[in-house]
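Progress note, sequence design subtask.
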C-alpha cells in the first residue's frame, strides 16, 4: 500500500495461483429477477407454502450453507418445529427448477474462465445445491462442463459450508498440495469461512445479497465488486 497525498493506492500483487474455486449463484451466476433475489424468493415461498412466514433477512443470514442446514437453522432460529425440513427442502428445489430460466451468468464470467484457462489455471465450481440442479443450471447458461476442472456439491459430499470439504476434495482430485496457490471466491460469509477453514486464499464479491460490511467482519483476503476484478491478482 502506498500513500500519494490524500489518495491511498492498494497495490494488487499477482499471485501464482494454480486453482480458483468459484461459488455459483451470487458469484458467477446472477441471483436477480427484476431486482429481487431468486434464491431468497424460492426459500421464502417454500416456507410460505408450508404455513411459515419467514423474514427475508433471517433467510439471507443462511446463504451459502447446505440447503437443508439452512432450512433447519431458520426453523430453529424462528422457534419452529423441524419436522417439515424435507418437505420445505423439496418445495425449495421445485421452486428453483421453476425459476431456472431466469438465471444468467454474471457479466464477464465466460471471458474470465477463458482468461484463467489461457494462464494455465484450473477452474472449479462449488455449490450447496444438489448436483442434479447444478447440471441443469450449467446447461441453462450454455456453459460446457469441459471448461471446469472440478464441479462439486457439498450436499453430495455430505458436509455443508463452512466445512471445507469441497476445497479439500477438489485439491485432492486435482493433485494440488500448496494451499497458498488456491483461491476460493464467493459472495457469502460462509464462503469466506470455508476458505479460511481450509487455509486457502479467500476473496469476496459484492454481487450477492450479503453486503460489504457483513463480509468485512470475516476478513477475506480480498473484496471485489465482481469476479472479473480477480484478474488483477492472477
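Output:
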Amino acid at each position: 500500500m502506498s500513500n500519494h497525498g490524500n489518495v491511498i493506492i492498494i497495490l494488487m500483487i499477482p499471485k501464482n495461483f494454480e486453482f480458483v474455486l468459484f461459488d455459483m449463484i451470487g458469484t458467477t451466476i446472477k441471483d436477480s429477477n427484476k431486482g429481487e433475489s431468486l434464491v431468497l424468493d424460492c426459500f421464502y415461498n417454500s416456507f410460505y407454502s408450508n404455513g411459515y412466514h419467514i423474514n427475508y433477512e433471517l433467510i439471507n443470514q443462511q446463504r451459502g450453507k447446505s440447503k437443508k442446514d439452512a432450512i433447519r437453522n431458520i426453523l430453529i432460529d424462528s422457534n419452529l418445529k423441524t419436522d417439515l425440513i424435507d418437505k420445505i427442502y423439496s418445495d425449495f428445489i421445485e421452486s428453483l427448477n421453476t425459476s431456472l430460466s431466469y438465471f444468467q451468468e454474471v457479466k464477464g464470467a465466460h471471458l474470465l474462465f477463458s482468461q484463467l484457462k489461457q494462464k494455465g489455471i484450473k477452474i472449479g465450481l462449488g455449490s450447496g445445491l444438489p448436483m442434479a440442479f447444478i447440471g441443469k443450471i450449467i446447461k441453462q447458461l450454455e456453459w460446457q462442463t469441459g471448461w471446469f476442472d472440478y464441479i462439486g456439491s457439498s450436499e453430495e459430499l455430505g458436509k455443508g459450508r463452512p466445512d471445507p470439504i469441497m476445497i479439500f476434495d477438489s485439491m485432492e482430485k486435482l493433485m494440488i498440495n500448496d494451499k497458498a496457490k488456491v483461491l476460493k471466491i464467493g459472495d457469502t460469509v460462509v464462503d469466506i469461512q470455508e476458505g479460511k477453514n481450509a487455509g486457502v486464499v479467500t476473496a469476496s464479491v459484492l454481487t450477492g445479497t450479503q453486503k460489504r460490511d457483513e463480509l468485512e467482519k470475516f476478513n477475506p483476503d480480498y473484496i471485489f465488486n465482481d469476479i472479473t476484478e480477480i484478474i488483477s491478482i492472477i
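Strands lie at 2-4, 7-9, 19-23, 122-127, 150-153, 182-186, 201-205, 222-224. Work on this subtask will continue into the next period as scheduled.
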